[in-house]
Design goal:
Elements (H helix, E strand, L loop, with lengths): L12 H10 L3 H5 L4 H7 L17 H32 L12 H13 L5 H8 L3 H9 L21 H11 L9 H11 L6 H11 L26 E9 L5 E9 L5 E7 L4 H13 L10
Antiparallel strand pairs: 1-2, 2-3
């Protein structure tokens, strides 16, 4: 048994609108529409048709709208870049700021929720400088029943305030205290009356916030150029060299060298390191100052 399927015919919506407005089905029948179908168009229960509002606009009008939208998009992107650069230059972050309970936090949370339709929560919190823990604490926090207590400064009597944490950060990252160990720095802060906290608390905050202590050189670098004389016989040097012989014995080679000319003025070899030999060597150098081939003043 063969089955036949009937193809459903579709008609232009503008032809249907013309029949409904004119209340005359002759034009539709003349276009090949069945009379029963055309009469059904006259019924008041016609279903609404969803269409684009710009179907009837010409190309010039559509191009003008595209140009206006592009211009508006460029202005918004420029404004967003300017605000982002301003936040980076000023170093503003909500991690170091406290917002009072009420309108400020409510407006911020509402703005974050609206922006989540275009960005992820991680990206939004990174842009405003807010941690996930603080965001969820604000979202899930129950309002305080006391009307005169807008924002509780502490959760426990032993908890450090924001000013105390900032003071610890300034002392840890300061160049003035870069040579002071963390334990000694803790006692120094207590002595000057800045922060009264234990050394373990300081180390925990350093690990938590990843603060880096400056490691610049405390002492100046050693000079690369030694002593330089301006003329001959101005500065002498006595150099002693230990020489090991093949039989295991040792001898000391001493020499008096002029700093300016690098000339050896006198030398000797001894079996012991005797200061008297150095004194005799200096006397020999003085006697040899005016000898031929020796540079003199």
């Amino acid at each position: 048994m063969s089955s036949t399927t009937r193809t459903q015919r579709r008609y232009d919506h503008r032809l249907r609108e013309m029949v409904c407005n004119s209340k005359n089905i002759d034009a539709a029948v003349g276009c090949g529409v069945p009379r029963s179908t055309a009469r059904g168009w006259l019924a008041p229960r016609a279903a609404p048709v969803v269409t684009l509002p710009a179907d009837d606009d010409d190309d010039i009008h559509l191009q003008q709208q595209v140009l206006d939208l592009r211009r508006r998009l460029d202005r918004l992107v420029s404004l967003l870049r300017l605000m982002t650069l301003l936040l980076q230059v000023t170093g503003f972050s909500l991690a170091r700021a406290r917002l009072p309970e009420g309108t400020a936090k409510t407006r911020l949370l509402r703005a974050i929720d609206r922006s989540r339709s275009h960005f992820t929560l991680r990206a939004v919190l990174r842009m405003v400088g807010l941690s996930h823990t603080r965001y969820h604490a604000w979202s899930d926090k129950t309002p305080c029943s006391l009307a005169d207590q807008a924002s509780c400064p502490r959760r426990s009597p032993q908890q450090l305030t924001r000013d105390e944490v900032n003071a610890i950060r300034d002392m840890v990252t300061s160049d003035e205290y870069r040579h002071v160990p963390t334990g000694t720095l803790t006692r120094l802060a207590q002595r000057i009356g800045k922060v009264f906290a234990s050394a373990n608390t300081w180390r925990r905050l350093i690990r938590l916030h990843r603060w880096r202590r400056p490691r610049q050189r405390v002492y100046p670098a050693k000079p690369k150029i030694g002593i330089r004389a301006s003329c001959a016989n101005e500065i002498w040097h006595i150099d002693t060299t230990l020489i090991r012989l093949l039989d295991g014995s040792r001898v000391y080679l001493r020499a008096v060298i002029d700093n300016f000319s690098r000339r050896i003025l006198a030398w000797n070899v001894g079996a012991t390191f005797d200061p008297e030999s150095s004194a005799k060597l200096l006397l020999d150098a003085v006697r040899n100052m005016n000898a031929p081939g020796v540079i003199s003043v």
